[in-house]
């Protein structure tokens, strides 16, 4: 099967979050299943530079008022097509945000261009199916539908909270027939909904964990689209994300101080000392060290961690933050760091090497998300032997087995989870984690279970292949 995947980012060419990791890992994961993946990305400067010499595939004479072309290359073991459209993508900095932190004012045009190019390439280049990732490519199934194309589409929702909604007057420039702008189409509360278009027009819809697939069909977490998602019935499913276990491997990770594996985790102590030093924490080998790695955002429960600080500090533990996000939470993290020197550390921003060091050096990773489509952080934590403390939501609930009394007795716990998502329940879970850490028998067993977890793409790739073949048969 020849599959074209389209996304706004993909590792190792351009990355702002977990979407890039998934898009970057799926080609290798699907290859053993007989699915050959070509990935279409915007021609950002970083992408064009990483691709090196390219082959011009096709000129697009007029894509929303300016010329563009599709170019192709093999780089980093991946077959990549780039939409070389400098007027839309030839910009330094964030793929989505202009200097100052606001969305690029022409994001509606930029990502409509990406979707339109994907629909064109899927038809003209002989692909069997199109795999569309998130709202930035969400119009592609609509373009195919109104071109009466027989190329089937799979639309994957990575986070329903980001929907790509634009004013109604955007519709006129999209090049779609008037009938597309109605409730049974792109219209969404008087606006144009790019993610809604993907949900409505794709042949199949999936999201990145079974738990989240169930949650988004409810009014609480459906973000206004729960009725449509319920209406799609069995066309909506969930497939867990995985990790590229070659890329994420503590036995070979070049970013960490001391490499190790499940057979001998003692080198983690060297990573812990280095992490404490990098974060301005006291070098205390026996103090439980918790870390948060990710967006400093309400969704991620960062405010709950700050409110639960007494459960960490009063029990002689330490905390490290790595990430950036909402201005108010960044300020609160900096404030906690200043008020608790040596006990709370932070790096506001992102650093890939420091993130790896957090997973390899922290004793536990905190992920108290209010909702979480899948989460990759807890998978990294399991892989690196840092049993995570997670909220019992979405993909976190699907991937972390709580180390309760029965699980400990059966030897199957891999971390700790809690519900409901509140400061009190997070504090309780942290207190449990600290007690287990100081238990010389149960913590090593929990750590071993975490590292033995299968966080690879193997099972999920098989499920994707089955879903794609079902689409072709349908």
Report what the structure shows:
- The protein has helices at 18-30, 45-51, 86-89, 107-124, 140-146, 194-201, 210-215, 226-232, 268-278, 302-307, 309-313, 327-339, 352-361, 377-383, 394-399, 405-410, 423-437, 442-452, 458-473; strands at 2-6, 36-42, 55-60, 68-75, 78-84, 129-133, 153-157, 165-166, 187-188, 191-193, 204-207, 236-238, 289-293, 318-323, 344-348, 364-367, 389-391, 416-418.
- The protein is of the alpha/beta class.
- A hairpin with a 2-residue loop joins strand 4 and strand 5 (78-84).
- It starts with a strand and ends with a helix.
Features:
single chain; 474 residues; alpha/beta; Rossmann fold; 2 domains; nine-stranded mixed sheet; six-stranded parallel sheet; 19 helices; 37% helix; Starch_synth_cat_dom
Q: What would a concise description of this structure say?
A:
With 474 residues, the chain is an alpha/beta fold. The protein has 19 helices and 18 strands.
Topology:
Elements: E1 2-6, H1 18-30, E2 36-42, H2 45-51, E3 55-60, E4 68-75, E5 78-84, H3 86-89, H4 107-124, E6 129-133, H5 140-146, E7 153-157, E8 165-166, E9 187-188, E10 191-193, H6 194-201, E11 204-207, H7 210-215, H8 226-232, E12 236-238, H9 268-278, E13 289-293, H10 302-307, H11 309-313, E14 318-323, H12 327-339, E15 344-348, H13 352-361, E16 364-367, H14 377-383, E17 389-391, H15 394-399, H16 405-410, E18 416-418, H17 423-437, H18 442-452, H19 458-473
């Amino acid at each position: 099967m020849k599959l074209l995947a389209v996304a706004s980012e993909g590792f190792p060419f351009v990355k702002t979050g977990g979407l890039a990791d998934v898009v970057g890992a799926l080609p290798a994961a699907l290859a053993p299943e007989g699915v050959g993946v070509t990935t279409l990305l915007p021609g950002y400067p970083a992408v064009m530079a990483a691709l090196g010499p390219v082959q011009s595939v096709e000129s697009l004479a007029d894509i929303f008022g300016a010329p563009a072309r599709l170019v192709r290359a093999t780089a980093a073991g991946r077959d990549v097509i780039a939409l070389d459209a400098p007027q839309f993508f030839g910009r330094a900095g964030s793929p989505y945000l202009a200097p100052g932190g606001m969305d690029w004012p022409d994001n509606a045009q930029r990502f409509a261009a990406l979707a339109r190019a994907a629909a064109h390439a899927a038809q003209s280049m002989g692909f069997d199916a199109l795999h569309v990732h998130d709202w930035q490519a969400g119009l592609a199934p609509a373009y195919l539908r109104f071109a009466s194309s027989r190329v089937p589409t799979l639309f994957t929702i990575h986070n329903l909270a980001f929907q790509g909604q634009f004013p109604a007057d955007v519709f006129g420039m999209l090049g779609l027939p008037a009938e597309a702008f109605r409730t049974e189409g792109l219209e969404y509360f008087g606006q144009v909904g790019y993610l809604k278009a993907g949900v409505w027009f794709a042949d199949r819809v999936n999201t990145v964990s079974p738990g989240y697939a169930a949650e988004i069909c409810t009014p609480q977490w459906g973000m206004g689209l729960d009725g449509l998602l319920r209406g799609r019935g069995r066309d909506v499913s969930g497939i867990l994300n995985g990790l590229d276990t070659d890329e994420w491997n503590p036995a070979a990770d070049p970013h960490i101080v001391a490499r190790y594996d499940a057979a001998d985790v003692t080198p983690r102590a060297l990573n812990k000392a280095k992490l404490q030093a990098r974060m301005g924490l006291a070098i205390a080998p026996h103090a439980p060290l918790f870390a948060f790695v990710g967006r400093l955002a309400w969704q991620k429960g960062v405010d709950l961690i700050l409110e639960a600080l007494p459960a960490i500090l009063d029990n002689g533990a330490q905390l490290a933050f790595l990430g950036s996000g909402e201005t108010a939470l960044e300020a609160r993290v900096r404030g906690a760091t200043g008020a608790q020197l040596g006990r709370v550390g932070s790096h506001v921003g992102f650093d890939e090497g420091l993130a790896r060091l957090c997973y390899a050096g922290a004793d536990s990773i905190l992920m108290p998300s209010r909702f979480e489509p899948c989460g990759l952080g807890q998978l990294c934590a399991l892989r690196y032997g840092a049993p995570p403390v997670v909220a019992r939501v979405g993909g976190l609930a699907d991937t972390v087995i709580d180390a309760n009394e029965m699980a400990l007795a059966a030897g199957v716990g891999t971390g700790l989870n809690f519900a409901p998502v509140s400061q009190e329940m997070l504090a309780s879970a942290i207190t449990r984690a600290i007690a287990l850490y100081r238990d010389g028998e149960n913590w090593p067993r929990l750590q071993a279970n975490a590292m033995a977890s299968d966080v690879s793409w193997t099972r999920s790739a098989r499920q994707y292949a089955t879903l794609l073949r079902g689409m072709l048969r349908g």
